[in-house]
Amino acid sequence: MTQPATEARAPWVARAVPYLPLGLIAALGASLAYVVRLPCRTGGWNDQVTTYTNFCYTDIYPLYFDRALDRENPYFAAVPFDKQVEYPVVLGEVMQVMSWIARALSPDTVTQAVRFYDLTVILLGLCLVGGVLLMAAVAGPLRRWDPLWYAISPAVVLAAYINWDLVAGVLSMGMLLAWKRERQVLAGVLLGLAIATKFYPLMFVGALFLLAWRSGRWRPFLETLGAAAAAWLLVNLPFMIFAWDGWRRFYVFSQERGVDWGSPWLFFQTKGWPILGDTDVSTLGMLSLAILCLGIAVLTLAAPRRPRLAQICFLALAAFMMTNKVWSPQFVLWLVPFAVLARPNWKPLALWQLAEVWYFVAIWLYLLSQPPLGREDLGIGDDTYFTAVWGRIITIAIMMAFVVRDILKPDKDVVRAAGADDQTGGVFDGAPDRFTLASLVR
Fold first, then answer.
1. DSSP letter, residue 162
2. Residue 19: Cβ-neighbour burial (10 angstroms; 0-12, 13-18, 19+)
3. How far is 364 from 49, CA to CA, in rounded Å?
4. pLDDT tens digits, 303-329
5. Nearest in space to 141 (alpha carbons), one of 429, 427, 337, 418
């Protein structure tokens, strides 16, 4: 017998109770991330050797001075172009609000910088807790505890406060939950804001496009895309008009930036590989990303059963990271929630987390041995460092291979084994196929 449509839902307090332990554990993870950086918070960040040997580096404190946050709005600052904020506008304005509060709390600039760090860490900690709770809602009651990987995994704790990436993380999880609940306009607004915070959520547009193509659910996709474009334009347009140089700094920096730490292209350049080591890295990166994205598209349209949204988001994001010119240690925060939603199997996840922890240790030891410090007695050399670079690449490639296998053999998918189709899919959940590559040859 069906239940009446007007049946009252459980009180919100009762619905919130299952999330309370996850929120508390995420708060513990946020607190541990603060403890990890205490050697720097108590003055160690004024000395690079101390910073690296204590593994407590953060961009937050030095950028307060280096991006004129101690004086004015970073996008309007009267500073050289290379000293303007190199982040999209939402992130830049988050920095600005935190600096306003810090300046109001203390007249001394050094004290302001410490306050700026503390305020930013509080915000990022709240973003981590919020992201974990949103991820739990996305995962659903059958996979409620999977977000523990995001809440307190070692790699997340170590990388949480290097930069402002957790702001984009909570927006991305909010977007995914809104899409799951078929609130396409809200999903689009959150996606647009996420892209205006960090650029990587742009990869999710491709995932939505491919699944809309396969399912024929174009209207929800176009509504989300339109809302995302409108939200992005709304927050960017004032800066494009009134602070053009400050606004375009991020895009110029991204285009002109050379190969940097963590990227596999750095290995090829350092070792002098032909073609891979001497061709323009922007060309190589775009070409390799295009090839991987083409492979993901073919996989999505050729698979025997429509892939889950989280699976395609994970593959697209992993491809973006592996082909990028730079792969900073905090980029792990981008991938963890999507990796877990795509394939919540603890063995490959644990292997990847070990590789991320090793990279986190290795990058700071490697920087110790590099100019201008040149402390080879404290640091590591090229070969040891590149074991960490390839450790991340290989372990993520293993996870990608497992996800591809799950897509090709849906009976191996642990999420679908519980009876679900696509817990994050929204309008894609249970949707019939409207187009596949197989349909072209019938």
1. S
2. middle
3. 9
4. 999 999 999 999 999 999 999 999 999
5. 418
